[in-house]
Amino acid sequence: MNRFRATLLAAAGLAVFLGIWEAAPRLGLINPAFLPPPSTIPAAFGREVALGVWTAAVLSSLSHYVVGLACGAGAGIGLGLVAGMSRGFEAATAWVVRLLRPIPGLAWVPFAIIWFGVESSAAVFIIAVGVFWIVFFATQGAVRGVDRDLVEVAQAFGFRGPLQRLVKILLPAATPGILVGLRTALGQAWMAVVAAEIFGVEGVGQRMMQASSLLSTDIVVVYMLTMAGLYGLFDTAFVALQGWLLRWRA
After folding, report:
1. Which stretches are transmembrane (predicted)?
2. Which distant-in-sequence residues (6+ apart) come within 8 Å of 104 by Cβ?
3. In this predicted model, what pLDDT tens digit does every residue of 13-31 receive, in sequence order?
């Protein structure tokens, strides 16, 4: 009953939000050129699909997203494991991390253009940078948070080498924390997609900038909702995968 009531309240809240959004431009409270009513969005979406623009933009952004996420997350997990296992490595890289960590992903755009040109590889680089630090710190913290008693027991049973400890103890115990970081990275990567494409790389971000320059705000909203929907699908799939990987905790 509580779940049903929560669903009704959520649906009612969404309906009120859409109603206010629809009424504001219709009543002249907001210029429709600046904020189109939601009733115009399906037609704009249909036009984009019919022209083939939507499909091309989404496929391009998905390729940037997947490759950038894989590169950034892979590097973050790898270096995070090393930093979590080795105090010496952490100490040696401490100042480097403090220097680079505060730099936002957008600040790397000029270098991305210089190094890679206005190409997909530049977008992948920016997305990877945005994802890397989230996964790195999540992995390092998860490894450091492993119960030391487990490590001592593993050593007592003969798992003394770093690789043995990693595979048998640290990685399984740290997996829940690493997965939390990866889930956060899923959203961060989507936010980085737009930033990575606004300087001319083909994709959703580029199409949004083109539409905004023409005051085609209905098309801008189409791609905003597209990104929200795609993120929802990725997040739902990841939660299902997370549940399967951590089924031993049930």
Report:
1. 62-83, 95-116, 122-139, 219-246
2. none
3. 889 998 998 898 888 888 8
Q: Spell out the residues 6+ positions from residue 101 whose beta carbon is closer than 8 angstroms to its own.
A: 133
pTM, full prediction: 0.86
In sequence order, the 6+-apart residues with CB closer than 8 A to the CB of 195 are: 105, 106, 109, 126, 130, 205
d(C-alpha 123, C-alpha 193), whole Å:
7
Is the separation of the CB atoms in 133 and 83 below 8 Å? no
Phi, psi (5° rounding) for residue 135? -70, -40
Measured CA to CA, the distance from residue 250 to residue 243 in angstroms comes to 9
d(C-alpha 67, C-alpha 45), whole Å: 26
pLDDT at 124: 93
pLDDT given at position 1: 54
Distances (CA, A) of 132 to 4, 188, 189: 39, 10, 10
